[in-house]
Design brief:
There is one protein chain. Helices cover 69% and strands 0% of the residues. The protein contains six helices and no strands. The longest helix has 32 residues, at 64-95. It starts with a helix and ends in a 13-residue tail after the last helix. The protein is an all-alpha fold.
Amino acid sequence: MLESLAISAVQLRMFARLSQLYGRSFDEDLGRNVLAAFGMGAAHHAFVRAGPAQSWRLVSAAAPVLGGVLAVAALPAIFATVTYFLGQACVRHYESGGHFENFGPRQLEGTPLAPFAVHLIRAQGGSPVVLDAAGR
């Protein structure tokens, strides 16, 4: 839980700073809503409690020293990567004339987070049209 709060705080700060750099308005409450729409807390929970985390636990059990080091390093690396691609999507959105008020899962299309975006768009009742990294 504490990790989710820390990750969200870093991502909110990133959005605020990008908004300032691009001369866009930023509302922290809206930022929290955007992060909630992206389901970052749920993603964190899924990574830590299931899926990849389970694999890391198996590696840790099989190779106690190396597995432990990998487990400690892997999750922060995963969330640093997610934060990086969120920032890149925000930059691309701002450079195309967008504003933070209309930043959402569709802006993740064309990034490695696109499969996650498809799930979010469908969950919100939309019909995703996912483009590859080249925009096709």
